[in-house]
Write a structure and sequence with these properties.
7 strands, S16 Ribosomal Protein, Chain: A, two-stranded antiparallel sheet, alpha+beta, 5-stranded mixed sheet, about 210 residues, 4 helices
């Protein structure tokens, strides 16, 4: 069965030998400090880094919220033909609505409700999810903005402190120069007075 999440419809497809022999799992990429993953379909008997059957998406846990790119219809197809997701991938498929669509299509096939009702339920779930993710994204953006504002305020205060320290050093240097100039002037005046004092007795002796 395949369900298009934009327009709920049910198409029957036979079970095949993929059931129980195939897994939907994560394939690690990136490096030690920044790992991200491909969501892949592979034979459950193949090694972790062995050959895959199909890549159906990617998962990056380094962002908030985590970034998921998923080929919805292919993921649903593989779930419907019996491929078994790992626990982590099951959580991803659940969060992306794949498992909900599988459940809804089962209800339509059994006649429990109509395709229109299934679509209505899926749309309501998606709207709720989008609103929740929007709040998370907004909270993260607000957190980053607050951190940037705090950093800017800290830089401003640091710059003010540096400017005050520089001004204080300049004032001290200016005061030191003024004191030195005053001392030099006093010494010059004293020397001049002393010179005049020595000249006066010499003039009186000549007279």
């Amino acid at each position: 069965m395949i369900i298009n999440p934009g327009s709920i419809r049910v198409i029957h497809s036979p079970q095949n030998n993929y059931q129980m022999a195939t897994k939907i799992r994560l394939a690690r990429h990136g490096h030690k400090d920044y790992a991200f993953y491909h969501i892949v379909v592979a034979d459950s008997r193949s090694p972790r880094d062995g050959k895959i059957i199909e890549r159906i998406g990617s998962f990056n846990p380094n962002t908030n919220p985590a970034a998921v790119i998923l080929n919805f219809e292919r993921a649903l197809y593989w779930v419907n033909v019996g491929a078994q997701p790992t626990d982590t991938v099951r959580t991803i498929l659940s969060n992306e609505g794949v498992l909900l669509c599988k459940h809804l299509q089962g209800g339509v096939a059994k006649g429990a409700f109509s395709q229109e009702e299934a679509q209505k339920r899926f749309d309501a779930w998606k709207a709720q999810k989008d609103a929740k993710m929007g709040k998370i994204s907004q909270a993260e953006a607000d957190k980053k903005a607050a951190a940037a504002k705090a950093l800017l305020a800290q830089e401003v205060e640091t710059n003010k402190a540096k400017a005050a320290a520089i001004a204080e050093k300049r004032a001290a240097a200016a005061a030191e120069l003024a004191a030195a100039a005053q001392e030099a002037a006093q010494e010059a005046a004293a020397a001049e007075a002393e010179a005049k004092g020595e000249e006066a007795p010499a003039e009186e002796a000549e007279a």
